[in-house]
Amino acid sequence: MESAKKRIGPLIRILRRTYPRSHTALDFRTPLQMLVATILSAQCTDERVNRLTPPLFAKYKTAADFASADPRELEAAIRPAGFFRNKARSVIGAGRRIVSDFNGRVPDTMEELLILPGVARKTANIVLSSAYGKAEGIAVDVHVARLAGRLGLSREKVPVKVERDLLKIVPRPAWLDFNYMLVNHGRAVCRARRPRCGECPLSRLCPSAGKFEVKPKAAQ
Ligand code: SF4
Known about the structure:
The chain is an all-alpha fold. 56% of the residues lie in helices and 0% in strands. It has eleven helices and no strands. Iron/sulfur cluster binds next to loops.
């Protein structure tokens, strides 16, 4: 981990230069919309969520609207996002809790966000950084977990433990966009299958560089 501390500054500088516009790809105007869109984005692409949220947010404008939503109607509206029954339950439950405990306003601390149904650290981190500009942690999704391992920033597999490792070495101001930079890099270059190490701007600093190259088969 000592070497990770030395590499993290240059890694972030290169990521920031390569992906200067690293922020959430989810469309939102308010913290409530950010929260709902993030819940819907689990196991679903941001593009698909962005296609279904405009009519959704036109119909449900406040936490009270979501709290009193008819489950069947909400399920139908969010069906394309997948896992629609669970997601509808989370959104309605979160709406109710926001109304009952937070006066209708999405809370802006990690501790309070974690009280809401369907909200774990990843969702809370995204809401805090994107809707409130607050750095309380780093959202660890599949891209961040994979890249943290390949880049030698964490040996852990469980997201909460990966996050704990990252928080020790990533400077706090970078917590806000670290997730988005790694997501961009994970999609563009360091893909799950066949990472493109040969064209990766981080290769000089990456202990996994070249490890994934497919070796040509020896002649029979
Ligand atoms: S060098 Fe390869 S493994 Fe390392 S970050 Fe780049 S693409 Fe990923």
